[in-house]
């Protein structure tokens, strides 16, 4: 099962809205096949694992391990449970049930009804951690939310505006290794979200140019549609969703999706509802301070990834305030990375 999880990670960033499932087939104590979920629209983990078995005659006396319950419905591909039954695989070991309303135990029942021996719950905690994005989306009806920011040694995330006005050059808090890691993170999530001020001050691209992998959907909070059309986030090279309160059609750009958002109170909850409707299973929130703090204050976050650089600003915009338990702290060159969970 741990090998299933190793395999499943290979699909991170490409399978959504499908989960990152891993599958291993064992015959007389030896692995004879393995696979993981293909990019969305392609075969599931079980299909790839069965296809990798050279001698299909061995399947009728093998055990199939899979991190998540096999599907039992037709989607982009046929049901995996049917394929397992077709090859007469007698024993199936499942990490955790699938909470998706179209599955939700039906795959397990289908296999059992056909006479298969099915066990559920092997390495359950590890499987839930592995599938945390998929589970959060279907169990809580919202994306898995990762907060990310970099703060100086004295606790600021940006210099004061007067300093920026005098010298508009980028004020890097972290080093190259940390910035490249952030691009890797972007490739692993479905969406990346920032507020208006972050866009206007930094004109960020919000893509994965320093890492191989797909760029996430850009999600921009722009209450009054202040972001000029020539800014990088509106260049239409990446799927982009703008959440706004403005109804001014002249300020909208073709090729960009706009959704109405009420910016008064419980902002984070309203954002989550819209992202759920757009099937965004995970989102990396990169700023600014007010946007990050709104998710913290509403208790809508699943992990925070906080860099602390070695520079000092002495004054400026204070970093968000968060409380939780540290699950990891490590150094990247001179930067300290701390991962916090609620």
From TrEMBL:
Pathway named in the protein's UniProt entry: Cofactor biosynthesis; riboflavin biosynthesis; 5-amino-6-(D-ribitylamino)uracil from GTP: step 2/4; Cofactor biosynthesis; riboflavin biosynthesis; 5-amino-6-(D-ribitylamino)uracil from GTP: step 3/4
This protein's UniProt keywords: Hydrolase, Metal-binding, Multifunctional enzyme, NADP, Oxidoreductase, Riboflavin biosynthesis, Zinc
Cofactor note: Binds 1 zinc ion.
Cross-referenced InterPro entries: APOBEC/CMP_deaminase_Zn-bd, CMP_dCMP_dom, Cytidine_deaminase-like, DHFR-like_dom_sf, Eubact_RibD, RibDG_C, Riboflavin_Biosynth_HTPR
Keyword match Ribonucleoprotein: no
Catalyzed reactions: 5-amino-6-(5-phospho-D-ribitylamino)uracil + NADP(+) = 5-amino-6-(5-phospho-D-ribosylamino)uracil + NADPH + H(+); 2,5-diamino-6-hydroxy-4-(5-phosphoribosylamino)-pyrimidine + H2O + H(+) = 5-amino-6-(5-phospho-D-ribosylamino)uracil + NH4(+)
Coiled-coil residue spans: none
Its biological purpose: Converts 2,5-diamino-6-(ribosylamino)-4(3h)-pyrimidinone 5'-phosphate into 5-amino-6-(ribosylamino)-2,4(1h,3h)-pyrimidinedione 5'-phosphate.
Classification via NCBIfam families: eubact_ribD
Protein name: Riboflavin biosynthesis protein RibD
Source lineage: Bacteria, Pseudomonadati, Bacteroidota, Flavobacteriia, Flavobacteriales
């Amino acid at each position: 099962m741990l090998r299933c999880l190793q395999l499943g990670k290979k699909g991170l960033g490409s399978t959504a809205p499908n989960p990152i499932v891993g599958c291993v087939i064992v015959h007389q104590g030896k692995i004879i096949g393995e696979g993981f979920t293909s990019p969305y629209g392609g075969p599931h983990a079980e299909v790839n694992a069965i296809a990798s078995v050279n001698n299909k005659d061995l399947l009728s006396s093998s055990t199939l391990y899979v991190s998540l319950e096999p599907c039992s419905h037709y989607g982009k591909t046929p049901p995996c449970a049917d394929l397992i039954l077709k090859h007469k695989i007698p024993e199936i070991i499942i990490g955790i049930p699938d909470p998706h309303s179209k599955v939700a135990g039906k795959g397990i029942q289908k296999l059992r009804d056909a006479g298969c021996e099915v066990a559920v719950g092997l390495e359950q905690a590890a499987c839930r951690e592995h599938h945390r994005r998929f589970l959060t989306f279907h169990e809580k009806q919202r994306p898995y939310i990762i907060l990310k920011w970099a703060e100086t040694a004295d606790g600021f995330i940006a210099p004061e505006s007067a300093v920026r006005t005098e010298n508009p050059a980028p004020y890097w808090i972290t080093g190259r290794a940390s910035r490249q890691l952030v691009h890797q993170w972007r490739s692993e999530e479905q969406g990346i979200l920032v507020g208006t001020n972050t866009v206007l001050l930094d004109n960020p691209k919000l893509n994965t140019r320093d890492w191989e992998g797909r760029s996430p959907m850009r999600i921009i909070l722009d209450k009054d549609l202040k972001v000029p059309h020539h800014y990088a986030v509106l260049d239409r090279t990446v799927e982009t969703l703008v959440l706004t309160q403005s109804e001014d059609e002249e300020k909208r750009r073709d090729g960009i999706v706009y959704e109405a958002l009420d910016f008064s109170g419980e902002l984070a909850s309203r954002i989550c509802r819209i992202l759920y409707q757009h099937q965004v299973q995970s989102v990396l929130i990169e700023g600014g301070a007010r946007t990050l703090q709104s998710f913290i204050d509403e208790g809508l976050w699943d992990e925070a990834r906080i860099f602390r650089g070695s520079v000092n600003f002495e004054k400026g915009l204070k970093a968000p305030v968060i409380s939780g338990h540290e699950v990891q702290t490590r150094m990247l060159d001179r930067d300290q990375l701390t991962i916090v969970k609620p």
